[in-house]
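Hello, quick one for you while I still have it in my head. A protein chain has come my way and I'm curious about its shape. I'm sending you its amino acid sequence along with the backbone structure tokens. I'd be grateful if you could look everything over and explain what you see. Here's the protein in full, and shout if anything looks odd to you:
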Amino acid sequence: MERAGPLPHPSVPHADLMNASFSDRRAANATSPPRGAGGGAGGVGGGGGGGAGEEQEEVSGLSLRVSLALTLSLITLATTLANAFVIATIYRSRKLRTAANLLVASLAVTDLLVSVLVMPVSALYTVCGTWTLGQALCDLWLSSDITCCTASILHLCVIALDRYWAVTDAVEYSRKRTPTRAAAMIATAWVIAVCISLPPFFWRQVRAEEEVTACSVNADHVFYTLYSTFGAFYIPTLLLLALYGRIYVEARRRILKRSPSGPPGGKRLTSARLAPSGSPASAASAASGASLTYGTNDASSSSSCGQVTVTVSDALLEKKRVSAAREKKATKTLGIILGAYIGCWLPFFMYTLLVPACASCFYPELFDAFTWLGYLNSLINPIIYTMSNEDFKRAFKRAFSFRCCRA
């Protein structure tokens, strides 16, 4: 495919930029003489030593490719299994079939598509260094890459928006939080992702007689550059920061409001029992911190052989403590989700902005690493969203125990 310049454009999402880097590298390799040719240039010791050095370099390169292929294959397989297991768990458990978990299941489906349609082809392209699958599969892979990766990012926004409404308007949103509404939000995310991925194919020009050795999208249109970049990453990131910031503030406000520092205002549950002085039961009651002890103060009285322990507990206070603990856990989970997303995708987009301003800063290997770091977010998503949910943990335990019993 024809390219406008030696460096990839900074704003084409995901596979496009990665493919552009491969295209430039392959073009350079095609125009340069092989190592060891031309009077020993690139050889070791010149003359006869060049053959041995080149053979050793080929062995080293082959080992590196095998290691790279195994690593990328393991990441792809782990991503597939993790997301498939989330989908199967939600499908098998009726308790998990809620509107909120429907969004999580849709995110898992999207990440599963990334692991099935995008990552295997990208791994082959990364290891081989040239495109050998033809123009039709190139178009299919590019559209799948842009659409699925963008849809995965937009699903994070949809889940954040759902949680924001659930926190800030719990009573009213509980009536609106239906599977139909969740399906509409999912459809909106996919429509936006498709709208971002389609425009490059309207101006695509391919000559049938040309051999396709590189698979990339022509990114010479400035409007599409801005449109795709902001639609696929920057706007969703700003939305996530705003939503999770508001959720954190609301959760913090609830924690402070439910703090047990003030006098208890709820119902009290009182119990009383007679226990001998110095007995373990009496000591345990006294150590509870919420007990009142009534007994005789006359040490000389022989009839004072015991004491009555009255324990007062505040049921409402206990509920507030549990609720505050849950709010803290939810806030921590939000931080992990946002940190994982930014940690996976920000290096990719920051590097693509740096390359046009600093041509000497472009390294294809580093660019490939940032691309796969973005793909890695599809593996992290199911781990975060499920391990932070107690219902998912119990469902996992039941599934594993059931399989162990059958085995």
User: Anything to note?
Assistant: DSSP finds twelve helices and three strands in the chain. The first strand starts at residue 268 and ends at 276.
